[in-house]
Every structure is written in C-alpha cells, then in structure tokens.
Amino acid sequence: MHPKSVVVFDLDGVIVDSFPVMREAFSIAYAEVVGDGEAPFEEYERHLGRYFPDIMKIMGLPLAMETPFVRESYRLAGRVPLFDGVTQVLEELRERGFRTAIATGKAGDRARHLLDKLGVIHLFDHVIGSDEVANAKPAPDIVLHALDLLGARPEDALMLGDAVTDIAAARGAGVTAVAALWGESDTADLLGSGPDAALHHPAELLAFCPAVAGVG
Prior knowledge:
alpha/beta
C-alpha cells in the first residue's frame, strides 16, 4: 500500500455514535410531518451516508421532514458521544503528521456544530458537508473536494466509513477504502461492498498510518 499522509473520515457511525439521537429526531420529524404510525427508521438507516433530502426522495417521504429533523438534531446534539478511542486516534494521527478531513452526509454547519460541541473540531483540517458539493455520496465529489482542500493526491489518502456509500465514494475518488465496523451499520452489506480493509476498533486505524516521512 502506498504510504499515506491523509485520512478522510465519515462522521456518523465512525467518529460519533449518533444513531440513538438520529432515531429520535427522525421519529419526531415523521410524527410532525407525516402523522400517526411508526417512523420507518430501519429503512432510513439502510440509506445512511447519503444526504438527508436524497434519502427522503428514495423513500418517498416529504422533503418537509428535513426542517424538524435538523431542528431536533441540533436540540439533541449534546447527547451524541464520540466513540471510545476516537479522540486518542485523532491526536496520534496529528502527532504522526497526518492531515485529516470529515466528509459527511450531514450538512456542513450541523457537522461543524457537533464536532465543536464535542471539543474535537481542531483535530480536523476541514469538515465538509454534503450540501457543500455538487453531488453527495455515493458520488466521489466530497472525497475529491477534501483531497483538493488538503492538496493531496488520491494515492496519499484513505477514507474510513461505515456505509456502502462511503466505500463507493472512496473508490470513485481513487482513494483506499476502509470499512469501520464499530457502528450500527449492516456488517454483511459493508463487507460485501469490497473495502480494501475492515476495522473493528478505531485504534486499528493506526496500523495503516505510520508516521509521515520526515515526522517524528
């Protein structure tokens, strides 16, 4: 594997354990806009990694759900934790000379607000949301934009994601695709998408990321 100097991360299910809060926000938005009945969160979950309006289109749900979903996501943001070990991994990557970016299905403002609240936004050079590129994942636009901002070539980078859309976006950008298996994603689907590697704990990432030449 070509030596790496850049890691591009998905956010939900990789850096933060946002699924319980996401489920609650989705249920509230569904009740407000659609009405009675159980919110189809399991189907929503299968499309995670995509931009929220795109998921609504795929599911045939009203785009009007986005406003209450975003409102509730902000309101509940204080309950979203980092996954165990993530902060230490991010700090170690910085020590080793790596540059890092977030490329998320979330809107950029929401992602930056959450990472700021968690006190880790300084550990990323750039935080990019799906509303800040022309085409959301599984298109490669967001990964290519991260590389452009970081001044990096595809062979310099790996992307860590927990969704089939992340693997597809990484592949489309020519970046090494690594699956994160510690979230709530369907492991069989994720492994079936053909990642270059699969990790069971954030700390395992460090084995792929020796110090950048000239650092340390």
